[in-house]
Amino acid sequence: MRPHQIAVLALDGVVAFDVGSAVQVFTAARRADKESLYEVRVCGEGPVRSEGGFTVTPDFGLDALQTADTVIVAGIHFGGPVTDGTLPGNIRQALHKAYNRNARIISICTGASVLAAAGMLDGRTAATHWAWANRIGSLYPRVNWNFDVLFVDDGDILTSAGVGAGVDLCLHIVRGDHGTEVANRAARRCVVPPWRDGGQAQYIERPIPHAGGTGTAPTRAWTLDRIAEPVSLEEMAAHARMSIRTFTRRFRDETGMSPRQWLLSQRVAHAQLLLESTDLGIETVARRSGLGSATALRQHMQAAIGVAPSTYRRTFRHPVQSAS
Predict the structure, then answer these.
(1) Who contacts 121 (Cβ-Cβ below 8 Å, separation ≥6)?
(2) Tens of pLDDT along 6-44?
């Protein structure tokens, strides 16, 4: 099978990190035999100015959008979509043509303003960077903006907040396409966290965690080593040598989640990995993930990703097997 074709659209004012991170994540997504799963092409209308003060010269033109399975619109920091709500007609047309032939459409950061200017987000829920909330929200009032989350998966159109959240969305897409094992391998190659839930809060002016090993990272690692055990909030706080109140506050500052929310998300993620990569029964997967029972596993997976464990295994088991 040919690799999945991705076109990354770079417009004037492009955020170079958004282009580079998308290319890096998707080219790092490979089967266990190192076979590429994606072919990524950066496209645009000739050289474009970046927000960083240098020029980006895409290797491909707008016609790359018409053969792509997925189109990614990188963020921009100046230009019509973020200043007055305008978008060149040829860009609008190229995006609509790609969408009408069922290409998946993605934006990173203020790339959502390009989709909004094209009229592709009207009536939809979408995310972008919190710092652009007032400007972009006022330019595009028909969009149901969520400026608090890392990304929004609305099926055929997915949008994210800025910088690191774009990486989270790209890994979320790899995970959906090919499973947790492939996504984790790509994350390791890129040296980034393998998973942050899209509904997690953006980091809005949060304090820098205290140095000197007084943060919650060591306790998070300690907890993950005991993922199958019933670790309590009191035990986590005791390991961190903090009061429960202080531990909970610092934990939320560092992760954007409460300790209980984070631990549940880690248990569900571990269950997903076991469902993909082993033949263990559902009860065993539940116990080894610390969720206790098959009933609890079904409830939490349904709430987190909308499918039952058996359905998830049928969907993702085959890609993992073919990668080995």
Answers:
(1) 112, 115, 140, 142, 143, 157, 159
(2) 999 999 999 999 999 999 999 999 988 888 999 999 999
> Could you give the CA distance from residue 148 to residue 151 in angstroms, rounded to a whole number?
9
* Contact between residue 110 and residue 160 where contact means Cβ atoms under 8 Å apart: no
- 303 alpha carbon, distance to own chain's centre: 18
DSSP bridge pairs for 153 = 158
What CA–CA distance (Å, rounded) separates 249 from 265? Answer: 18
Collapsing DSSP states into helix, strand and coil, what is residue 30? Answer: strand
Amino acid at 170: C
| Token pair for 83 | 């200043």
Please give the backbone phi and psi of residue 61, each rounded to the nearest 5 degrees, phi first: -90, -170
Supply the pLDDT for residue 214.
58
User: Could you write out the DSSP letters of every residue in 239-273?
Assistant: HHTS-HHHHHHHHHHHHSS-HHHHHHHHHHHHHHH
Give me the pLDDT at residue 55, please.
Answer: 95
Q: What is the pTM of this model?
A: 0.69
Alpha-carbon distances of 174 from 154, 262, 287, rounded to whole Å: 16, 21, 27
What pLDDT does 204 receive?
A: 44
Instruction: Tell me how far apart the alpha carbons of residues 7 and 19 are, in angstroms, rounded to a whole number.
Output: 10
Instruction: Tell me the CA distances in angstroms from 313 to 44, 124, 265, 322, one per residue in order.
Output: 39, 30, 18, 14
Q: Which of 167, 1, 3, 5 lies closest to 102 in space, CA to CA?
A: 5
Q: Which residue ranges of the chain lie beneath pLDDT 50?
A: 203-212, 318-324
Structure tokens at 112: 């959502």
Displacement of CA 256 from its chain's centroid (Å): 15
- Joined together, the tokens standing for residue 188 give 């390791």
- What's the pLDDT score for residue 267? 93
CB atoms within 10 A of CB 49: 17
Q: How far is CA 321 from the centre of its chain?
A: 24
How far apart CA 57 and CA 253 sit, in angstroms, is 39
